[in-house]
Amino acid sequence: MTRLLAVQDLDTSITQLQHRRDALAEASGLAAVEAQLAELEAQRADAAARRAALTATQKALEEQIAGITERRSGIEQRMYAATSSSGRDLQAMNDEVRHLTERRAELEELELVAMLDQDPVDAELAALRERSAPLEAQAEELRAQVAKDELEIDAALAAAVGSRAAEAALLPSALSDRYETLRSRLRGTGAARLVGNRCDGCHLELSSVEVEKIRALPPGEIATCEQCGRILVPG
Ligand SMILES: [Zn+2]
Questions:
Q1: In angstroms, what is the span from residue 135 Cα to ligand 1's centroid?
Q2: How far is the CA of 86 from the centre of ligand 1 (A)?
């Protein structure tokens, strides 16, 4: 029966170690820092998308401006070369040149706006980088700490799992089966100690008659807590 309790204690330690391992990111503050970083990253992605849209607008305008410049110099070349053109043709070409010059000025105005609009977004991106840099460093440190703690817990877990297997192998199979069934049903605790007249599995008191009966059982007989159904081992 002491062996069964040893198995139970090891199972309890194993569960606690696993919980501690799962909670490391939360407990160390890493989860909170990573949440802040994710929020900043979302803001950065948003700003980067706006920046990219402005760059694309600027590029499109530049292409249009280049096209207009090309068309205008084509017309100008024709104007200067066309000694035989009629006055009306020259007038039309002149009008076209003027029109293109006006259009280009409009597009250049728009391009300037698109360029100027990039400045505040660049400032926003720089501010976001400045805010996330120390958090990145902090996260890095915490990740290293968590990894170190994980290694320690894993070593403790491996040792506990090894001892558990060794102890459990020596239990009679009927007892072992019953313990496993109870354990899976009763939140990880299949065997409890009888401490005074209290079951330390459910923390309820047993009647003194029941306690007498359990303490009088011959060694090897299995007692059960009448409140919670766990295997009860007199302490
Ligand atoms: Zn109980």
A1: 49
A2: 113
